[in-house]
Write a structure and sequence with these properties.
194 residues, alpha/beta, Rossmann fold, seven-stranded mixed sheet, 6 helices, 35% helix, Peptidyl-tRNA hydrolase, peptidyl-tRNA hydrolase activity
Amino acid sequence: MSTSPWIIVGLGNPGEQYEATRHNVGQMVIDELAKRHNVKLSTHKSRTDIAAYKLGVGVDAFSVILSKSKSYMNESGGPIKALANFYSVEPQQVIVLHDELDIPFAAIRSKIAGGDNGHNGLKSLTSAFGTAEYYRVRLGIGRPMGQQDPADFVLKQFSKEEKKDLGEFLDRGADVVESLITKGLDLTQSQFNS
């Protein structure tokens, strides 16, 4: 059992104009976890915002560091790698939350390693870490209807319909992260991979 903390990364873009967009759903789950554990994110020298807490009780509690890169999605690898180096965390102790076009809205899948599927945030992380061996929590946003360019679609806010289920979706995203840490990948996949 590793004594180094788990780093939970919410991918997204900085700035108010991106805050509530589909591309930032990973960061929305980070906010949900921060709220759940009553912690506030603050600036770290790695160009990330972070908050730390313990998951569990006593000596068996896991150290968790929530993080959001302050750089744009396609450059998030550098700050996250710097944060991992600061805490001596290997990529296998990193869980990355990101939007996923290829699964329906509100579906969640977790896995370790794999390709980046054209996702610039994952591409940047894999390049910075020199490996794809980190956990991913894939948060389904579905594909745009009709002719809309996926690049535009991800930078739009959730639809009125989707917003009705967004709270529950983010809550489940937070549950998946905590399950990965406390129960491992197999149990988490069998419980949550919808």
